[in-house]
Design goal:
There is one protein chain. By secondary structure, this protein is mainly alpha-helical. Among the domains are: 48 residues; 90 residues. Helix 9 packs antiparallel against helix 10 and helix 10 packs antiparallel against helix 11. The N and C termini lie far apart (66 Å).
């Protein structure tokens, strides 16, 4: 009976929301629902400390409200979706290497980024990026210690900076945008390159080469000179450095990688000679477009 009465009031409030569309009814239903949830928890668990299920319940409610908001386009419901993840943070024990805290923050970050994509508001973007970074950095020290990779400390912050720069690319002067992009991507590549020379591992070497090639491809796809220049520069630096500093115990593996790379380059040169005129024409068009890149 103690639960039935609040449920009837919630049902009446929902009916009033549908009829009047007033924000006061929305907030009233939300407040009553929270109070009912607290009553049920006290009845079942007493004064037990918060647990992972409390966080999951709040985040589940936030996602459900977000789905409801997309169906109704209600502004008050959107405000509730913004607040619920912040309440969920109060149930999270913040400590390094905490899967509970990291998972909750990553879930909150995904929710806020989804809100940014759906509503085009700026605040969810910053909240989402902040939550994702904090969630990752709670786990980064253990990952870096396990894999002995210093670049893990740099990657989340660098990727977030590049993402925010891309979002504000029309608000920043082109020269400043290019300089900050180049500095950020260079710091990222420098950390990856330092891991290559500090660790005699073929996997780390291949990962650094792949990261450079990804930067080149992203630069071409997005028409961003900073990504293209930095990717090519650090690709050449990694290959040249390994040719000069092959470690004896890793000589065979890295030699195989460089041999495959050299074979690929030779094959590309043969293909280039066969398609010279067509490729040169495309390069001329590419060079004329390069001047218009950011």
């Amino acid at each position: 009976m103690a639960i039935a009465a609040p449920l009837l009031l919630i049902a009446f409030g929902i009916a009033q929301v549908k009829r009047t569309r007033r924000a006061a009814w929305v907030y009233g239903v939300a407040t009553l629902s929270v109070m009912l949830g607290l009553y049920v928890r006290l009845s079942c668990l007493g004064l037990a400390p918060v647990q992972v299920w409390d966080t999951a319940a709040l985040l589940g409610a936030a996602y459900a409200l977000f789905a409801l908001q997309r169906l109704t386009q209600s502004g008050p419901v959107l405000h509730l979706v913004m607040v619920l993840p912040l309440l969920a943070l109060a149930t999270v024990p913040f400590q390094l290497n905490s899967p509970h805290a990291s998972g909750a923050l990553l879930t909150i970050g995904v929710l806020y980024l989804g809100m940014r994509r759906a509503t085009c508001h700026v605040l969810p973007l910053y909240l989402g990026v902040t939550a994702l970074n904090v969630g990752l950095y709670l786990r980064v020290p253990s990952w870096a210690h396990r894999y002995h990779l210093g670049q893990l400390y740099v990657i989340p912050a660098a990727m977030s900076m590049l993402w925010l720069l891309h979002f504000h690319r029309r608000d920043v002067r082109p020269a400043v945008l290019h300089s900050v992009r180049l500095a950020t991507i260079s710091i990222l590549y420098a950390s990856a390159t330092s891991d290559v020379f500090l660790r005699a591992s073929v996997v780390v070497f291949v990962a650094a080469l792949g990261l450079s090639l990804i930067g080149v491809m992203v630069g071409i796809a997005l028409r961003v000179r900073a990504f293209l220049y930095a990717g090519m520069a650090f690709f050449v630096l990694n290959v040249a450095g390994q040719l000069l500093l092959l470690f004896p115990e890793q000589r065979l593996g890295k030699a195989v990688v460089l041999l495959i790379l050299g074979t690929s380059i030779t094959g590309a040169m043969i293909w280039f000679n066969a398609q010279r005129e067509s490729i040169l024409q495309r390069i001329r068009v590419f060079r004329s477009d390069l001047a218009t890149w950011e």
